[in-house]
TrEMBL record:
SUPFAM superfamilies: ARM repeat (SSF48371), PH domain-like (SSF50729)
Annotated source species: Erinaceus europaeus (Western European hedgehog)
Biased composition (Acidic residues): 671-681, 787-801
Stretches for region Disordered: 671-698, 719-814
Domain PP4R3 EVH1-like: 5-101
Protein's recorded name: SMEK homolog 1
Gene it is expressed from: PPP4R3A
Length: 814
């Protein structure tokens, strides 16, 4: 794999002067036959596709920025950039570009000073300043050429800017503008356009302060109306003086503040509407213009914030019932723009700004505004509310919890937001989508605070589910009273999809609050009614909600699903979908596949027991057959709970000539405690108890030897038994003893694992034992034990108790 040095992101500049990310890949350089030259190639790291193929043109100006960025322009309106992960990779590609263009890799712009001779460079370095032509009508073309030729060189730009500042040249140029306009000298006006545009690109704050002063700014805008590329001049000044009106919703007494507002509006207009869209290089040259606007906005917000009388009047009029609708709309629009300006503030200043608004009572004011009928006012109020929620959701949560102690649920701020979301008249529900996003931010535990004294998550979610959740689910519950949605038009479906999206978010993040609500209100059953909707996106939203619940693998949810048979609408929708290979088909299959893979036993059993007949014919995937197999394995384990462990014990520690499977009675024997032994259990006689360890272990070791020799025979016997099926509990037990007695027993416990009569068990008669063997049959058990003193019946019980642990241990070891 290519190393990370050559890892890059490819960007292109869009019409809005924003960089679009075209993908991540690895860059290389090489000769491309089709392009007839050395080229830059970027292949995507995901699939190896070609993201970029660009010939290194000898005349293209490449610019290296910030050590990891190379920028260039392919065509007039097509700018490209490569952003490198590592500086070393950027340096390598930069060297390749400079090599093709014959430049020194130490430069940052490959075409800088490319048209200047050595003599001109020497003049630039040695001359103290730049001498401007006299500001006359006949020399406008000469001035325009001088400005244009100075822009490529940082040194010449600096000297030109100083010359313009020192000689008051801009005001002289604007005087010529009036002369040209009076004489209708279109050629002169075109030259002035180029000159003023070039001065903007000099990127000097001192020049901007002159150009944007009250006496000059309208003339500057006038110069920019005469673009040579246009057949008719634009009418920017007419728009600014006649169409655009400045409204003082609250009178501003400070003249400096008023002038600053006018100036900022006009400069913003110049940036957005008057100046042509700059290329990537000119974009960098206009950074000071952006900064000028930015700091103006900061000053405006600061001056308004400090004027307490202004803000007090603003909120008083906003909440005053006697304020007429038009005036209130203007007040709300002003407040919205005021908040938008605040986004330019540094975090510390923004904190102070929103704290000021909060102290002034912005949330109660918004509550009043949101309760009004005017849709435009409500829309602006929603935008203001979004600024507050995005900045500090905890502040909003604290307010609504405090007001809940005084007001009814119907007029709570959050419930007003939910109602506006539900009642959005926009066919595309644009406002509802915005409000849903705000609600999600408010109920997101990730941004909730936890302090030593209280936990915001616990308090707010308790409040939300008590006072607000019923308002959110009201349209869902109202529309799902029957087997099908009572209203199934597009707008209702969109609204319900939004509600389901928020509920799904709650399932994922709210644990027990939403669990209690869903189970107590039977929400999932109502949601699954929407599976019958004619709108596929709504049916999928309902399915996604159920899938999120099943994904939690919570048995409380599982029992609720099984008790209410909530898979029925899902199976019905799946079958109604037929053989169509679509998103519904895939989503349902994925949900059942999740149950199978995660082995959710309760749901597996429920699905197979209730829906197998409907699903058994689905054979194009193995999901349902896999579920059936899981179910059968689960049932087998329930019937034989210790089957796996017993098989392991039998395989390792027990010799069976017939290799039969374990019986229930044998399992009971393994579970029997020493204290629960019946009198019929075979016991070891006192003489056996006195034998040394070697005597006891001798038959075991011999048995193990025999076992190894007969291992192959045992495998064959196991194979035959598995093929013939499970044997009957009735079987024959063959005893190899001195008497060579064959016993036939109908008791299933006669051949217990390691029982005294089994070959090789400690109770079997070893080879050195006398040929006389006693067969004890008590309680239906058959045992073969060596009793040398049969007449000592009085000590039998005591000896039995003492030897049981040894006997049982020997049985397990065998």
């Amino acid at each position: 794999m290519t190393d990370t040095r050559r890892r890059v992101k490819v960007y292109t500049l869009n019409e809005d002067r924003q960089w679009d990310d075209r993908g991540t890949g690895h860059v290389s350089s090489g000769y491309v036959e089709r392009l007839k030259g050395m080229s830059l190639l970027v292949r995507a790291e995901s699939d190896g596709s070609l993201l970029l193929e660009s010939k290194i043109n000898p005349n293209t100006a490449y610019q290296k920025q910030q050590d990891t960025l190379i920028v260039w322009s392919e065509a007039e309106n097509y700018d490209l950039a490569l952003s490198f992960q590592e500086k070393a990779g950027c340096d390598e590609i930069w060297e390749k570009i400079c090599q093709v263009q014959g430049k020194d890799p130490s430069v940052d712009i490959t075409q800088d000073l490319v048209d200047e001779s050595e003599e001109e460079r020497f003049d630039d370095m040695s001359s103290p300043g730049l001498e401007l032509p006299s500001c006359e009508l006949s020399r406008l073309e000469e001035i325009a050429e001088l400005v244009a030729s100075s822009l490529p060189s940082p040194l010449r730009r600096e000297k030109l800017a100083l010359a313009l500042e020192n000689e008051g040249y801009i005001k002289k140029l604007l005087e010529l503008f009036h002369v040209c306009e009076d004489l209708e000298n279109i050629e002169g006006l075109h030259h002035l356009y180029e000159i003023i545009k070039g001065i903007f690109l000099l990127n000097r704050t001192a020049l901007f302060e002159v150009m944007f002063s009250e006496e000059c700014i309208m003339d500057v805008i006038g110069c920019l109306e005469y673009d040579p590329a246009l057949s008719q001049p634009r009418k920017h000044r007419e728009f600014l003086t006649k169409t655009a009106k400045f409204k003082e919703v609250i009178p501003i007494s400070d003249p400096e503040l008023k002038q600053k507002i006018h100036q900022t509006y006009r400069v913003q207009y110049i940036q957005d509407m008057v100046l042509p869209t700059p290329s990537v290089f000119e974009e960098n040259m206009l950074s000071t213009l952006h900064s000028f606007i930015f700091f103006n906005k900061v000053e405006i917000v600061g001056m308004l914030q400090e004027d307490e009388k202004f803000l007090t009047d603003l909120f008083a009029q906003l909440t005053d019932e006697s304020t007429d609708e038009e005036k209130r709309q203007e007040l709300v629009n002003f407040l919205k723009e005021f908040c938008a300006f605040s986004q330019t503030l540094q975090p510390q200043n923004r904190d102070a700004f929103f704290k000021t608004l909060s102290n002034m009572g912005i949330l109660p004011a918004l509550e009043v505004i949101l309760g009004m009928d005017d849709t435009q006012v409500r829309s602006a109020a929603t935008d203001i509310f979004s600024y507050l929620v995005e900045y500090n959701p905890s502040m909003v949560r604290e307010f609504v919890m405090q007001e809940a102690q005084q007001n009814d649920d119907d007029i709570l701020l959050i419930n007003l937001i939910i109602e506006h979301m539900i009642c959005d008249t926009d066919p595309e529900l644009g406002g509802a989508v915005q409000l849903m996003g705000l609600l999600r931010t408010l109920v997101d535990p990730e941004n909730m605070l936890a302090t030593a004294n209280k936990t915001e998550k616990t308090e707010f979610l308790g409040f939300f589910y008590k006072h607000c959740m019923h308002v959110l689910t009201a349209p869902l519950l109202a529309n799902t009273t029957e087997e099908k949605p009572s209203k199934d038009d597009f707008q209702t479906a969109q609204l319900l999809a939004l509600v389901l999206e928020l509920l799904t978010f709650c399932v994922e993040h709210h644990t027990y609050h939403i669990k209690n609500y869903i189970i107590n209100k039977d929400i999932l059953r109502r949601v699954l009614v929407l599976m019958a909707s004619k709108h596929a996106f709504l049916a999928l939203c309902a399915l996604r909600f159920m899938r999120k619940i099943i994904g939690l693998k919570d048995e409380f949810y599982n029992r609720y699903i099984m008790k209410s048979f909530l898979f029925e609408p899902v199976v019905k929708a799946f079958l109604n979908n037929g053989s169509r290979y679509n998103l519904m088909n895939s989503a349902v299959l994925e949900m059942f596949e999740f149950i199978r893979v995660e082995d959710i036993k309760s749901l597996t059993a429920h699905v197979i027991e209730n829906y197998w007949k409907a699903l058994e014919d689905v054979d194009y995937v193995q999901t349902f057959k896999g579920l059936k197999l899981r179910f059968e394995q689960q049932r087998e384990r329930q019937d034989n709970p210790k089957l796996d462990s017993m098989r392991s014990i039998l395989r390792n520690h027990r010799y069976r000539r017939d290799a039969r499977t374990l019986e229930d009675e044998e399992e009971m024997w393994f579970n029997t405690d020493e204290d629960d032994m019946d009198d019929g259990e075979a016991v070891v006689s006192p003489s056996d108890k006195c034998k040394n360890d070697d005597d006891i272990m001798d038959p075991i070791s011999k048995f193990m030897e025999r076992k190894k020799l007969k291992e192959s025979e045992e495998k064959e016997a196991l194979l035959k038994t598995n093929l013939s099926g499970r044997q009957s509990p009735s079987f024959k037990l063959s005893l190899s003893s001195g008497t060579k007695t064959n016993l036939t027993s109908q008791s299933p416990t006669a051949n217990l694992p390691g029982s005294p009569g089994s070959p090789g068990s400690p109770g079997s008669v070893p080879k050195h034992t006398s040929p006389t063997a006693a067969i004890t049959t008590k309680g239906g058990l058959v045992g073969l034990v060596d009793y040398p003193d049969d007449d000592e019946d009085d000590d039998e019980d005591e000896e039995k108790e003492d030897t049981l642990p040894l006997s049982k241990k020997a049985k397990f070891e065998s």
